[in-house]
Amino acid sequence: MFAGFDTSNYTTSIALLSEKGCFNEKIMLSVKEGERGLRQSEAVFQHTVNLPKLLEKLDFSRVEGVGVSTQPRNAKGSYMPCFLAGESAAVSFAKGAGVPLYKTSHQTGHILAALYSCNCLDLINQSFIAFHLSGGTTEALLVSPDKENIINCEIVSQSLDLKAGQAVDRTGVLLGMKFPCGKELDNLSAESSAEFKIKPTIINQNCSLSGVENKVKKMIESGAQREDIAKFALTYVSKTVLAMLDCITEKYGNLPVVFSGGVSSNSILRKTINEKYSAFFAPAEYSLDNAAGCAVYAMIKSKL
Predict the structure, then answer these.
(1) C-alpha to C-alpha distance for 54 and 24, rounded to whole angstroms
(2) Nearest CA to 277 among 140, 78, 97?
(3) Which of 46, 66, 133, 192 could form a disulfide with 263 if both were Cys (CB 3.0 to 4.6 A apart)?
(4) CB 285, CB 262: distance < 8 Å
(5) How far apart are CA 271 and CA 276, in angstroms?
(6) C-alpha–C-alpha distance, residues 190 and 273, integer Å
(7) Which residues contact 284 (CB under 8 A, 6 or more apart)?
(8) β-strands 2-7, 11-18 pairing
(9) CA 301/CA 304 separation, integer angstroms
């Protein structure tokens, strides 16, 4: 059995992975009504409060190794204080239990969780495309095997401004929703029968999403229906991601495509992509922030 710890910007997560499956426990961080995020100091405080609560829910008596995310990406200078809370807890637990500790990145955890949940972990042995779509990241990655880090991720397309998750959450907050807004906005969009012709902004394979927020504000001012505004924003993001994938496929060929990150659980995005490509989409619990990928990382590393 392997344990995983992940303390992202908005979720405290601990997972246990065994032959019977993955038990993934999490607590969403609390964001005040009307606000669009948390300061890092507040995130660290909430993680510190949440971790003991999650530890009480799981049986760690047979843990053989621990995986933990310690940075956003496996890149020099990639750092966020919120990951210190999970690292501290994981280090303490591993030392106390006398088991190995394996450190990885939040992004690697997302990708491995998606692969695990889609029953395609064998893709770590070949090249594939991974989309990481969240509030802090909108990137398409060329993923290849890596002896030290399991997978190596090279950014081949990304947002030049607003991130996909930011576009979703800012739209939701403007519509009076509680942050984070992805699920509620998705549900509201399903009530709309409106159709939108959208021309994504693609610049040298990268995208721009800043136009979403400006258009949403104009729609609100003009008295557009809430459900139509929700559908517009999600359609805009989805068409943009599709355009990114079109550019990538043209350059790198038809490699397997895997989607991870909270935005990847959106129904409009999945429908838009699957109408043209056969992509792997993780179930919602493995698309949203979770610690399952960190546990998977520990399992893989323990076998090397």
Answers:
(1) 10
(2) 140
(3) 133
(4) no
(5) 9
(6) 17
(7) 265
(8) antiparallel
(9) 5
Q: Looking at the predicted structure, is the pLDDT value of residue 186 above 80?
A: yes
280-294 mean pLDDT: 94
Sheet arrangement for strand 128-133:
150-158, 138-146, 128-133, 257-260, 280-281
- What crossing angle do the helices spanning 82-97 and 40-55 adopt, rounded to 10°? 30
pLDDT single digits (tens) 20-72? 999 999 999 998 887 878 899 999 999 999 999 999 998 889 999 999 999 99
Structure tokens at 152: 């190596």
Both tokens of 151, joined, read 């997978």
Q: Is the dihedral of CA 76, 81, 86, 92 positive or negative?
A: positive
- The first and second tokens of residue 147, run together, are 């002896």
Residue closest to 220 by CA, chosen among 176, 179, 254, 174: 174
**Element containing residue 155 per DSSP (H, E):** strand 150-158
**Segment 64-97, tens digit of pLDDT:** 999 999 999 999 999 999 999 999 999 999 999 9
3-state SS, residue 258 = strand
Whether residue 121 contacts residue 252, with contact meaning beta carbons closer than 8 Å, is answered with no
The enclosing H or E element of 104 equals strand 101-105
d(Cα 295, Cα 24) in Å, to the nearest integer?
10
- Which residues neighbour 252 within 8 Å (Cβ) at sequence distance 6 or greater? 129, 142, 156
Distance CA 208, CA 219 (A): 19
Phi, then psi, of 80 in degrees rounded to 5: -145, 130
